[in-house]
Amino acid sequence: MIDSHCHLDHEPLHANIKDIVKRSKEVGISKLLTICTTFSSFEKIKSIIKQDEIIFGTFGIHPHETKTDIVDKNMIVENVKQNKKIIGVGETGLDFFYNNSDKIKQIDSFKVHIEASIQLDVPIIIHSRNAETETFDILNSYKSSNLKILMHCFTGSLSFAKKLMEFDTFFSASGIITFKNSVDLQETFREIPLEKLLIETDSPFLAPIPMRGKKNEPSFIKYTLEKISTIKSKTTEEMSILTTDNFNRLFNT
User: Fold this and answer.
1) Does residue 14 form part of some domain?
2) What is the domain-level CATH number for residue 175?
3) Is the pLDDT of residue 144 over 80?
């Protein structure tokens, strides 16, 4: 298994990193991808990826933070190129649910991240909430380019997923898929091709059932794996192998 999206720079994970990694390995996790959201988070990530061989990282600015952490393409490119264990661009995208940052600033930042990922030829990790039309239109404007898209914690509609499939997009299932009120999302994932599926925790957020109410951590990914296996009519071993192979193919690891 691979946790394709966690935030090891957040507490309580950061203060307990050795135990977090130990428990991850005990459940069969072979890689952890810790995701950047701010400049300060990247400073922590540069240290975190040295803690264990299974930890990798990214560089990017979350849409919530685009009002204060402003990047250009060259800055992203240089930060990713500085370390072989920084293997992706993001988390970027659009969040028009909370609107913590101005929409224009979010869009400008998203485009810069896309351009950097194309230049670097690495995957871009995308957060999209209440912004399906805008997210698709922006990605569509780069359709002819060599885009490697990962929709993180995908909770979008089936129609959005089908449009994104035109871009050879990968989709990551989080603990949300285990929730009782996620029937529509489960049906959407039933339609996503096996070769385009990844799994994640988004820890320390979004703990899956039966761990709701607790701080999430990478080792809880086994519950998401069990649910997606049921949805796709596969064994957990088959889905573990499939999602691991998909991650390694996407990130060239």
Assistant:
1) yes
2) 3.20.20.140
3) no
